[in-house]
Amino acid sequence: MKTLGKSLVAFLLTLTMALGALGGALAEGKTTVTVYTARDTNVFEYVEPLFEEAYPQYDLEIMNMGAQEILERVRAEQANPQADFLWGGTEAAFKMAAKEGLLEAYVPTFADSFPAQYKDPDDLWYGEILLPEVIMYNTEALAEEDLPKDWNDLLDPKYEDQIIIRGVLASGTMRTIYCCMIYGQGGADPEKGFEWLRGLDKNTKEYAQNPTDLYLKLARQQGTLSLWNLQDIMIQKIVNEQPFGYIIPESGAPILVDAVGIVKGAKNMEGAKAFYEFLFTPEIKLALAEDMYQIPAQGDIPREQLPQWIQDLDLKAMDIDWSVVAEKEMEWMTYWDENIKGKN
Q1: Which of 77-86, 288-297, 315-324 has the lowest mean pLDDT?
Q2: Would the CA dihedral through 294, 297, 300, 303 be positive or negative?
Q3: Alpha-carbon distance 139 to 142, whole Å?
Q4: Cβ–Cβ < 8 Å for 286, 305
């Protein structure tokens, strides 16, 4: 009973604080904009105060989860949307959301200058950044001569129990990477790709529950290699001073479009549109490129004005039919989860 009493007191205190904070926000005349995001914590903690300074009438409420988790949550909430804005997620996920009627059409002010390949033809989503998917490694654990140079090198027996993978099904990034590996091996015929994933599973020591768990295990050298996106590796390496490096595979890297969109039936449509426009202002795009290592999808900034790290980046894009990846993702990932994961 004592434990129950303490829990109840703690709950009431938390509720009182929450109501007090809500009352303060309402007293100030602020409106809450609820954002679901798969972005790194450093990114949304960087953007949030900038937006609230530029738009003092709004208060951002940011909920962080995996891209696939976001899609599933928006599906579940379709009858009563709880989010206003979706910030980040793969092209495949946004195409699925658009197909299911989960997104609100919006033509932003920059629509006419936006590359057609990085936006929805019906203005249901726009690609904010490009995310190259690369090989991640612990710089303190692996010497230069021991590093893999391409994707197929990850299947070498010398890397057995050295690979840590972010839990695949909950991660839009990992689902897309795995689908790109399947497509890269055999196109729309997945059999060669499944065989490749069996080899990767054999060398995989563990599937981490979330990105934080992945970073912790790699930093502790519980594993030395992973597959991950370039932006988050750069943030962990430079901002958080983690011993991480990256390898751009010789055969090419899948370059994902990371998109944004407004939730169909959003309760705060105007706030969502304001945040939409804010993310695509040239000043914010440049700041995020410089400080948060983002590659803007919209090519309206002259190359010489982009940060030096982007100008120096030597990327070769993997040849991927993204329509096939989007169509087959669920089928391929279900097969992987039921027949390959942890069985090799």
Answers
A1: 315-324
A2: positive
A3: 6
A4: yes
Count Cβ atoms below 10 Å from residue 7 Cβ, excluding itself. 10
Contact 156, 148 (CB under 8 A): yes
Angle between helices 41-54 and 269-279 (to 10 degrees): 110
State yes or no: pLDDT of 92 exceeds 90: no
Please say if the pLDDT value at position 334 is more than 90: yes
As a whole number, mean pLDDT of residues 54-70 equals: 93
CB 130 within 8 A of CB 255: yes
Q: So what's the pLDDT on residue 17?
A: 41
Residues near 312 by beta carbon (within 8 Å), at least 6 away in sequence? none
Instruction: Give the whole-angstrom CA distance, residue 245 versus residue 74.
Output: 34
Question: For position 26, what pLDDT does the model report?
Answer: 43
> Three-state SS for 102?
coil
Q: H/E/C letters for each residue in 138-173?
A: ECCCCCHHHCCCCHHHHHCHHHCCCEEEECCCCCHH
Alpha-carbon distance of 288 to 279, in angstroms, equals 9
- The span from the CA of 261 to the CA of 170, in Å, is 20
Q: How confident is the model at residue 245 (pLDDT cuts 50, 70, 90)?
A: very high
Structural tokens at position 214: 């992945």
Q: Tens digits of per-residue pLDDT, 281-293?
A: 999 999 999 999 9
The pLDDT of residue 223 is above 60: yes
Count CB neighbours of 342 within 10 A: 9
Place of tokens 């497509």: 183
Task: Measure the N-to-C terminal CA separation of the chain; round to a whole number of Å.
Answer: 49
pLDDT for 10 equals: 41
Q: Which sign does the torsion angle of CA 10, 13, 19, 22 carry? A: negative
By C-alpha distance, which of 305, 309, 281 is closest to 132?
A: 309
CB atoms within 10 A of CB 132: 22
Instruction: State how beta strands 85-90 and 255-263 pair.
Output: antiparallel
